Amino acid sequence: MTGPLIAGIELGGTKCIALLGTGPADVRAQLTIPTTDPGTTLAAIEAALDGWEFDAIGVASFGPLQLDTGAPDYGAITATTKPGWTGTDLVRRLERRYAKPIGFQTDVNGAALAEGRWGAAQGLATHAYITIGTGVGVGLIAGGRPVQGVAHGEAGHMRVPRAPGDDYAGWCRFHGDCVEGLISGPALAERFGCPGKDLPHDGPQWDLFVHDLGGLLHNLVVTAAPERIAIGGGVITARAHLFPRLRARLAESLGGYGSLASYAGELEERLGPPGLGAMAGPLGALAVGLD
Fold this sequence. Notes:
By secondary structure, the protein is an alpha/beta fold. It has helices at residues 38-49, 91-98, 107-117, 179-183, 185-192, 205-224, 234-237, 242-254, 260-264, 267-270, 280-290; strands at 6-11, 15-23, 26-34, 56-61, 102-106, 127-132, 136-142, 145-146, 228-232, 271-272. α2 (91-98) links the parallel β4 and β5. α3 (107-117) crosses α11 (280-290) and α6 (205-224) crosses α8 (242-254). The longest helix is centred in the C-terminal third of the chain and has 20 residues, at 205-224. It starts with 5 loop residues before the first strand and ends with a helix.
């Protein structure tokens, strides 16, 4: 393979992945590192990069992030639910050590860019990637680029109507019962008393999950009508049986409205897992570096 060689860093809430390559067909090295405190985690990542030769670095990180290149804290993690990581400098630390060009984006925007470059969203101008793991994030691409205003979007923290009788207060320490506060991995563990991976495959707990995620999907579709929506992350990766339920919930919620009536009939193709599977996130870091 030819092209720039990228050191990609995907920073996740539970684990980080560093990889060296040019794309999915050319991954030359890969290392998984537990996400602990910033000092320990970043030192382990740097130990890997120190042994690699590369042309640029791509960082796709959990957030929130400061993406405004004119801001004094550009390249840092801002106020986050991840203990100990608020204010952590990422870009400038790596610049000082490696003196290489650095691309910097949210992990979900990175995964969405990878899906557009190599995955199930190739050739599409408007598409989205949702991750459900330690947190909930939404990466939205329009015109081939991530949608961003004053700051990057935080659609994982939108509020949705609650299911009748559901009085769980929510896990998010900022918003309580936002979507992240209801369906992220830590929320499921607190809400139901065991990790999501241990919940019964057909348990009634997933009724609430489908209801709450369905609310996010409704809002995303009526706002942007993405040509495709990929949903990945640790919570849903092993729960492919939920996709038909999510499609049915979304179609019912859209209610045959206007131009979205035909959209609701196309959800088998429009809503599903990422084409890159579990590699969408790590390859997102390569895509950010290539950009």
